[in-house]
Design a protein that fits this description.
Length: 130
């Protein structure tokens, strides 16, 4: 019996609201063989709004929405020009390479997917990091 082997790439999005605070904001995943990429976000906006009266939630929500727009892709939207390299093994690196002072992606890591159990791996990553 032969096994179907592929790779799943992922990167953790961290938010640094201050020099001494780091929060996990999301998980970016990329599965090239299915032309799938997605940024899973956690609700850090509510957390931060409750902690800091000067916090501007609309601004940060806009930044997170823009990041998700640049990363989120499934097969149905893969024809769009911004996803032309969705099958590339370096796609997630290219999408997460930009850094800001407050939001940063971790280096991209890869997992081996055997027999197309990608959803199980994504769920495990969500449970582990979010």
């Amino acid at each position: 019996m032969s096994q179907n082997i592929s790779q799943l790439h992922y990167s953790i999005l961290s938010f640094f609201p201050s020099a001494d605070t780091k929060l996990t904001a999301g998980l970016a995943v990329h599965y090239p063989c299915n032309q799938y990429s997605h940024l899973y976000l956690v609700d850090i906006i509510t957390q931060l709004k409750n902690q800091n009266n000067d916090f501007n939630p609309d601004f940060y929500a806009m930044i997170l929405k823009a990041m998700a727009y640049m990363i989120n892709c499934d097969f149905d939207s893969a024809h769009q020009k911004r996803f032309k390299n969705i099958r590339s093994q370096t796609y997630l690196i290219e999408k997460t390479n930009y850094l800001t002072k407050e939001f940063q992606f971790s280096p991209v890591k890869s997992l081996i997917v055997i027999n197309n159990n990608v959803q199980t791996l994504i769920n495990d990553l969500i449970d582990q990091f979010l």
